[in-house]
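Hi everyone,

Forwarding the result from last night's run.
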Amino acid sequence: MRILLLGEYSNVHATLAEGLKSLGHEVTVLSNGDFWKDYPRDIDMVRRPGKWGGICYMARLYSLLPRLRGYDIVQLINPMFLEIKAHRILPVYKYLRRHNRRMVLGAFGMDYYWVSECVNRRPLRYSDFNIGDVLRTDADAMRERADWTGTDKEHLNRYIAGDCDTIIAGLYEYWVCYRPHFPAKTTYVPFPIKPVTAIEAASTVHHPLRVFIGINRERSTYKGTDIMLSAAERVLAAHPGEMTLMKAESVPFAQYQSMMDGSDVILDQLYSYTPSMNSLLAMSKGIVCVGGGEEEHYQLLGEQHLRPIANVAPTEESVVQALEHLVTHPAEVERMKRESIAYICRHHDYQKVAHQWLEAVT
């Protein structure tokens, strides 16, 4: 089949494309590389700054449209799959709908249904927008609520979700937000990861324990990185000879991977129920994730035995307790390292996920 993947989040489409290509399909990825992360793509669509950058972007987009026809499946990474305003995306979506066979919407990140469900129905105990019944009021959360509620973005999201053939949710939390609205066409498909490490290679636990945290300066508070970093620094101060802390601040993907390699533990996604792409990549390398690993996500996967994630509540004390336990229990770290790689092989192998994705969208 001919498959077009539009947009990028954290290497999801680039990795899915590799899996689909290995199964013999013709796949094209068009994206901006997810901004500074610079993930691989076949067609580069980066918008340069300023008014002239916008004019050049639109000219390039319209010149490319004839090449974006005749695909069996087109998947959008998000309703905002291009770097233009929502009201300009809608006619592009309608063009793609007319000239391709099946349209798929990815529920992979920030969108109207994620914001609306977390703010109003609150199916999750905690999220980017609520802690229990208390709504978060940090600047990022309030900005996203304003951006996606009662706006062209909401209209675009609702139109595409209603019109498309399939909605693919990549995390438990996105699945639980879309499922009540579109039960017949919402399917959970795990994020794809290319396994890189044999289980036997994960048995080494360094002393001192090597802890890694990736910091996006623009999203630190929103994603809870500030809390996780503070917790890690507290544990480091309490156990200076038993732990080291490596920080990667807003670096391209290749450099991020290089800095992560050789770590024992990663701190990531305080407010998540499910490990995201950065956590999954780390787990594929035998690095233990301290972050989102709630039982609901294991149940959705059908996983009865493996528990490789050090699940934490969205508080600094919870992160401190989890990290201190790992620092003082190296045998537990070794077990979780091995289970991390087994978990990736069982649920996130890019070729297995490619098969699941094809079953869901055809």
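The chain has a mean pLDDT of 95.

Cheers,
N.
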